[in-house]
Specification:
Butyryl-CoA Dehydrogenase, subunit A, domain 3; single chain; 2 domains; 235 residues
Length: 235
């Protein structure tokens, strides 16, 4: 029983991965198991589709469990109590994925803003000739490059079998905050044109806001990074 909120593309899914406490006598994460179950299983229903600020191509709604019975054959993995471990493995990869998406969006915004600055003329010259516009472009380029390097480094380490729990959180935290700043500067460079839908920059501005929220908020990433640092220093 319960409700999981804001599930992306839940209405399109045929299967759900869910977590449930299978051992009520074991406190914490060790009593939680992971399951893969059909979306139309008895007791599972969906809430209404939510209207969002951005990312209109991805629909979200609640998944509601009302006395849902999930058979033991749906257990993910070979034994109970491994649900949290499974979730953390997925989150680590997911955070790197979101970080890479943030880098790609930032680079697209920088490309569009630079092209606009080179073409848009004010007072007889391109606005890109003005030093303060160049400064905004330079800030965007520097931050996007730093995020790209972080994501590439953490991804290579993960492919090599290293534990990159801290690094993936660092990437997610920095890249998601970075693309928000880049989007804001891109709108500023476009000026009034950046506030209307014709140029598309305003859509990116709305779309990137969610990156600081899903796959763990920026504040969650800060907690993970700081906690891991203190634990490693104490070992």
């Amino acid at each position: 029983n319960g409700t999981k909120r804001y599930i992306t593309n839940a209405a399109k899914a045929s299967m759900f991965t869910l977590m449930a406490r299978t051992d009520p006598d074991t406190p914490g994460a060790k009593g939680v198991s992971a399951f893969v179950c059909p979306a139309d299983a008895p007791g599972i229903s969906l809430g209404k589709s939510e209207k969002k600020m951005g990312q209109q191509g991805a629909h979200i709604c609640d998944v509601i469990f009302d006395n849902a019975r999930i058979p033991a054959t749906c257990l993910l993995g070979e034994e109970e109590g491994k649900g949290f471990v499974t979730a953390m493995q997925v989150l680590e990869r997911g955070r790197l994925h979101i970080s890479a998406v943030c880098v790609g969006v930032a680079e697209r915004l920088i490309e569009d803003a630079t092209k606009y600055a080179a073409e848009r003329k004010q007072f007889g010259q391109p606005i890109g000739n003005h030093q303060l516009v160049q400064a905004m472009l330079a800030d965007c380029k520097t931050e996007a490059y730093a995020a790209r390097c972080m994501v590439m480094d953490a991804s290579k380490r993960r492919d090599a079998g290293e534990d990159v729990g801290t690094e993936s959180s660092c990437c997610k935290y920095f890249a998601s905050e970075m693309v928000g700043r880049v989007a804001d500067k891109a709108v500023q460079i476009f000026g009034g044109a950046g506030y209307v839908a014709d140029y598309g920059v305003e859509r990116f501005y709305r779309d990137v806001r969610i990156f600081r929220i899903y796959e763990g908020t920026s504040q969650i990433q800060q907690m993970i990074i700081g906690r891991n640092m203190v634990r490693e220093a104490s070992e």
